[in-house]
Please model this.
Amino acid sequence: MTISQQHDKQPPAPQGKHHTHLPGEAQAYWVTESGGGELRGESMPTPGPGEALIRTLYSGVSRGTERVVHEGRVPERVAERMQAPHQEGDFPGPVKYGYLNVGVVEQGPQEWIGKTVFSLHPHQDFYVIPANQLTAVPEDVPARRAVLTGIVEVAINALWEAGPKLGDRVAVVGGGLVGGVLATLLRKYPLGRLQLVEADPEKRKLAKKLGIEFASTEDAKADCDIVFHCSASNEGLKLSLQLAGDDSDVIELSWFADKEVTLPLGEDFHARRLNIRSSQVGAVALPRRHRRTNAQRLQLAASQLKDPVFDTFLTSECQFQNLPTTLVKLFEQPGGFCHVVAYPNPED
Model:
């Protein structure tokens, strides 16, 4: 998954203030050249016209992408394209990286003051950002759950890319964070069949919680109209081609980074006229690109999080000051979905 995006521009609005004590210096999480992490102090600029100062409540760690960054595995050929919108530094590091941030507007345009917002900003306790790059979190969506907005956005883009139809037979191969969130949205479609396909039998619990059918890699049903591949594995993509029906599409959501992929293209691919189509969140999927903006896609993603089932994907938490040591342990452990980072309330 890649996150580099453009946002709608809006005219500057009148500035306002929210009465909260603000520090003279912010703290931000940086990935070091050695692949570790540390908190660094940053000076706090005064918001200019059309800008907002955000106090972070929660941020999220998407294990797959951020682990690649920590391990220095971003390919040099696509390093510029892989930059997050508010990234500082360059790959492999030092780099300030992240894209799942939920906070409250403390200063800025009057209509934003006090609102809970999502932004594609790295892990940082206070920051200034153009207000037109904020997504308002609906009042009935908890701030903690709202860190998943950026992940739901990835899933929505894939759905727009594929265009599931009434009665379709669909498989989601890979039950990680992106695959699980995608399957959660697919539950709403009037499909003929929906399977979550996983080699890990523990993911059966996830499928049961979502109320969808689980299938092992050996038992998955073929002749699918659409296969979404989310496992970021050679084996998963191979299986996706086997499950796809004649003339159908495999929608590829995985980011393989520097991993090479080998496929048996002499088997199903040509013989059954299959298509592998990339779904990349940096641009709105082509079928909606002329009628939807990135900002509208993010707002739609935030609205989907009213469903409490999405709490399933928030599987661990730490305090912001403990993030450097926590991530080292987190990336060593298999399993889990989104890790939540909680930030202190300066008024406590």
Remarks:
- Residues 1-14 have pLDDT under 50 and may be disordered.
